[in-house]
Design a protein that fits this description.
The structure is a homodimer.
Chain A: E1 3-7, H1 16-28, E2 34-39, H2 41-53, E3 66-70, H3 83-87, H4 92-101, E4 107-110, H5 114-125, E5 135-136, E6 138-140, E7 147-150, H6 160-177, E8 184-188, H7 199-209, E9 216-221, E10 230-231, E11 234-235, E12 238-240, H8 243-268, H9 272-278, E13 290-293, E14 299-301, H10 308-323, H11 326-337, H12 351-357
Parallel strand pairs in A: 1-2, 1-4, 2-3, 4-14, 7-12, 8-9, 8-12
Antiparallel strand pairs in A: 5-13, 6-7, 10-11, 13-14
């Protein structure tokens, strides 16, 4: 059973996309799941009425699992991240996250202002012990299974220790959300050798090679390995990078597939619909939303230009995160990686003891 | 007239690719151009004889513009960059760069060890005044004309001042090699707003916005703008980023197009040759080589897996760089951007004077 608080005012196509997405999601989800549409009641109700009188009349049956929660303010897409909590405490974003923080919802989903969602999620839900910052985990389609790339935008200047934490967070995500056993982690760099990369990446490689608890480290991977989902050392499930690199790559990926399709369409005369269907797997709306990993709870970040379909898929991601107890597993993994401080047990010096503890 | 020193031992397919590439290039170039094949004389001569007795017999006529220069050693692809000058002074790489440094060649081209080529080019050719490091300028195909992306691998941790220098170097490249008048420069970041990015990028944005001499700055561009060659503010010719980001992007680009083509082939049943021909424009071997900008001279870096065709195109790039006097223009542009120190002329204080000086 999951109660999903959904920001009805967030994203370029709100309130239509969130409201329609909620109806589609409830249709697909089991009857034990409910959605709380958070926003200006009159606006949300008008949108609901319009859809249920028209295009989505066939989904009327799900509306008893839909609640509308009043939030008179809206955080704009270009508002400063800090503006939310301080300036608009009654916005749909803040009201929704607070519902989750206070236990009245099991998860929060928004296609609104990402910076505000990160800031408010971190402050209201708080981070698991051992973390300095949360990370956005995005699925990248590959020639094989999708891989988890993190961070993809929450942290722009990262230390090597933070990169190691991303490796840990991504491993938990791959295991519990994607069902990968002992997920393999690659560190994004500019050469496969351990000595290649910028300062933070070279240090992180060393920390990871020395054996970091709960991380199955493969070594460095390069840009060309990402679309394949494998490097010369085999396939991987998780790729770690700082949020600047991850965000640039994610947006480049979004732009490049339509460009290639356009070139092929022009050259071959194949019709666009057929080509689009061929690369459907590369469409980010198929994946819906990226969890903000590290917060105590479930905060799903959707693309600003999310369609109803993307929002529907983001709700599915939220339900999966709740049902798999993703956040609990993150907390446990982080706790088990922290140095033991039990009184009376002093960690022995020497490589053997250290290896055993890891 | 250009004399091009070509590393006959560099790259995954040496000596075949460089030797065959040289023959093809000479066939296409005017009779005033010559190539110096630098490597183990017996190996290079054997390869030449084999090609001219077989597949490339029709190119025999160009061999009088081909010289073989002895260099008994070879720098391996995985040798450390510093190993070249210190450990293998008689390698094809070092001998070729020294020929250029001593005025016996007008340019140097190699598909060999990139790190060694950068280090030796910087030390033997030296940098233009005002630079701390050279940058690799790579052409990225877009839906419009190709754009120049730099740095794409020479510098992994960059200061904001270095990013500004890359903007200047890229502008000269776009103007003299691509024929773009007043080339437009974008700064790669994670949002179009000036305040988005990591520390170095935010600082660089401010420096560029305040008016840096010889740079037509558009503002930040995002990953999704690259394949289009334009942002919300219009088209651009040059994109500036640090070498870590640039290298990851470049290699990602190399990997993603074949993946998309593979998916479309599987789904539509179109044959691979037809699809490959549709995206020929995305094939890096079409572009051949990336100049190491900032050195006093012409040092062209080719992909390690360069084919004969890629090497041929790299030679064309070298000839164009010589004929357009690219390096001289770089030196002049850098000099004109340096603070005036003429005695008696003290720059006036105040924003108007500063604006006028820029």
């Amino acid at each position: 059973m999951a109660r999903i608080a959904l920001d009805a005012m967030g994203g370029d196509f709100a309130p239509h996309a969130p409201v329609a997405g909620a109806l589609h999601a409830l249709k697909e989800l089991g009857p034990e799941h409910t959605i709380q549409l958070v926003g200006r009641t009159e606006v949300v109700r008008a949108q609901l009425d319009e859809l249920m009188a028209g295009d989505l009349a066939h989904l009327r049956g799900v509306s008893d699992r839909l609640e509308v929660v009043e939030a008179p303010e809206v955080i704009g897409m270009t508002d400063k991240p800090s503006a939310g909590l301080r300036g608009k405490p009654d916005s749909s974003m803040i009201v929704g996250i607070r519902m989750h923080a206070e236990g009245r919802s099991d998860a929060f989903v928004s296609a609104g202002n990402t910076g505000a969602q990160m800031a408010a999620s971190t402050l209201l839900l708080r981070l698991h012990a051992g973390l300095t910052r949360p990370a956005i985990a995005t699925l990248f389609p590959t020639a094989r299974e999708p891989i988890v790339v993190l961070d993809s935008g929450a942290n722009v200047d990262c230390s090597s220790q933070e990169l190691v934490q991303f490796a840990r967070l991504g491993s938990v995500y791959a295991e519990y959300m994607l069902g990968r056993e002992h997920p393999v982690v690659g560190l994004l760099s500019i050469g496969e050798e351990a000595g290649k990369g910028n300062i933070a990446v070279k240090e992180a490689n060393q920390l990871l090679r020395n054996g970091a608890a709960g991380i199955n480290f493969q070594g460095n991977v390069e840009g060309r390995d990402l679309p394949l989902g494998e490097s010369g050392r085999g396939s991987f499930d998780v790729v770690v990078c700082d949020g600047f690199v991850g965000n640039v790559l994610l947006k480049f990926y979004e732009g490049i597939a339509p460009m290639v399709v356009g070139m092929i369409g022009e050259h071959t005369g194949l019709d666009r619909a057929q080509l689009d269907s061929a690369i459907k797997r590369l469409d980010y709306s198929e994946y819906g939303g990226a969890p903000l990993l590290g917060v105590r709870g479930v905060s799903i970040i959707s693309h600003g230009s999310s369609s109803a379909r993307a929002i529907k898929n983001a709700v599915h991601v939220a339900v999966r995160a709740v049902e798999s107890r993703l956040s609990d597993h993150v907390g446990q993994r982080l706790a088990s990686a922290m140095p033991t401080t039990t009184p009376g047990i002093v960690p022995a010096a020497g490589p053997q003891a250290a290896g055993g503890a890891a």
